[in-house]
Design a protein that fits this description.
UDP-N-acetylmuramoyl-L-alanine:D-glutamate ligase; 10 helices; 14 strands; about 35% helix
Amino acid sequence: MKTIDVYGIGAALVDTEIEISDAELATFGIEKGVMTLVDEARQLELISHLDNHLVMAKRASGGSAANSIMAVASFGGKAFQSCKVADDDNGHFYLNDLTNAGVNHNGVGQLPEGTTGKCLVLITPDAERTMNTYLGISETICRKNLNLDAISSAKYVYTEGYLVTSPTGKDAAIECRKQAEQAGTKTAFSLSDPGMVEFFRDGLQEMIGDRVDLLFCNKDEAFGWTGASSLDDAIEGMKQTASTFAITLGAEGALVFDGENTHR
């Protein structure tokens, strides 16, 4: 019997959300609307430049998959998250946040030494989110962080495409998908970012396997993945990868393919 609605795996990041102008993004040489991996020194440099914004900054647990898993729990679903944090203030904050959100997780026992991943989320007046991410210890998430019992007990496993940037993370995602398939657990996947599609396509394909039950992406990711130049062609191309999918369209909303019909 499936007792968990969604099992997630992804990077564990503590988000610091800061409101910023487009002009400031340009001044700091930050590309708008994408996720950029940075080292800790670059992240600290940006924070020092934005020191006057930190009074209004908000700290929250994040990571693509974790955000979705916490949303599942907030709607009353049963959720489990596999992640990796360090034995530091952010790591304990992160796990407490998951617990308080009603999400079960693998972060039990003695946590490893290191630095928990951090994401600087820069929000412009048009609500566009630009992310500068230092993965920290979450970059080393691996098969050992999987909970096989939870995977087999889940209706869905949900994997974020961002894991493709980590060799051990990609391997864990592939193993998670294989375990899910063997257990009759449906698979859900997010392409995560246009940059992931552009630069890590082969790795994403390995993570997805032959076919995924449910795929999430935005319009740019859909065009990049399928090589399409029109939305209709992208929809047809996506049907070769996923049984069902959702494509977000920015200000135009979203579309959903339910396996038979497309809904706008």
